[in-house]
Amino acid sequence: xxxxxxxxxxxxxxxxxxxxxxxxxxxxxxxxxxxxxxxxxxxxxxxxxxxxxxxxxxxxxxxxxxxxxxxxxxxxxxxxxxxxxxxxxxxxxxxxxxxxxxxxxxxxxxxxxxxxxxxxxxxxxxxxxxxxxxxxxxxxxxxxxxxxxxxxxxxxxxxxxxxxxxxxxxxxxxxxxxxxxxxxxxxxxxxxxxxxxxxxxxxxxxxxx
Length: 209
Hints:
Strand order of the largest sheet: 3-4-5-6-7-8-9
Structural class: mainly beta
Number of helices: 0
Number of strands: 17
Strand content: over 45%
Helix content: under 10%
CATH topology of the largest domain: Lipocalin
């Protein structure tokens, strides 16, 4: 990042990010040394995810005496109510005197109520008896397949858990399966709604890794 000081741009900081396959990241933040005219280490953030692809820990460390140190560091840890929502977020500060993490505060959620909005009311068929979602969970590609008695796919819509439509695809005559690219979606749980040529709507859930 550069800042304009009236007659020139000068460097302030620079970030580099390493991405892990499970969604985690390691971010290095560098600061500009005007005297020596070079970058030097400042802070790094280690963002760890669990095996399901959900955030479990964020740790901040400082470059100190030639090594990364938790001196002045802080971290967040997450506990989940289920695979959809985190229930507790703990914030801790590092105590350099006792060399341990001490709790500072936490966010606790004791009850969740969420709604899926704007799903069309067209002879809605619950239970997804005629709908196959393969694989589930999935990271990149999703195959939507109708069983023989369900007819053909007319349209497919995907909603996030707030009810926001995030993907829409058309089907066609005698189209009984459709492959979808979901790699752009964020990790989480989604609702899929498939309208058939018989004006039925089959719905189901899938997990994006």
